[in-house]
Amino acid sequence: GTADRTIKLWNAQLGTNTNSIDTGSQVCALRWNPHEKELLSGHGYANNELAIWSYPSMARVKDLKGHSGRILSLGLSPDGTTVLSAGADETLRFWQVFGDPQVAKKKAKGATQ
């Protein structure tokens, strides 16, 4: 949330909190990677950045800086590889953060042969 700076993961069937991560800044937007087990978060004060988290460990993988104001919204391209962030700094930024699903499938197939 914005005030407590945390991402909370819940088990919807049991109604229990399974994980709570202090991100260090306001949490303004979330978007799942449709191809991998990753979560992208958009932040406000104090960092105004995006962060990629590995699921389920919720280890912080990468920080993406570029906005001077808080992230207001995140959108995802139809192919699931590019994220659009809209910031309070009145900018739109395109981030190629999620890998090409076809490349990932080929790598996985080659690893099993």
What does this entry show, briefly?
Helices cover 11% and strands 47% of the residues. It has one helix at 101-112; strands at residues 6-11, 16-22, 27-32, 38-43, 49-54, 59-65, 71-76, 83-87, 92-95. It has a four-stranded antiparallel beta sheet, with no helix packed on it. The protein has a three-stranded antiparallel beta sheet with strand order 7-8-9, with no helix packed on it. A two-stranded antiparallel sheet has the order 1-2.
Oligomer: single chain
Topology as a string of helices (H) and strands (E): EEEEEEEEEH
Distance between the termini: 44 Å
Largest sheet, in brief, is: 4 strands, antiparallel
Q: Low-confidence stretches at least 5 residues in length (pLDDT < 50)? A: none
Average pLDDT, rounded to a whole number, is 90
Helix content percent band:
10-25%
Backbone structural class: mainly beta
Question: Could you tell me the number of beta strands?
Answer: 9
Strand % is: over 45%
Shape: globular
Radius of gyration: 15 Å
In which order are the strands of the major sheet placed?
Answer: 3-4-5-6
Supply the number of helical segments. Answer: 1
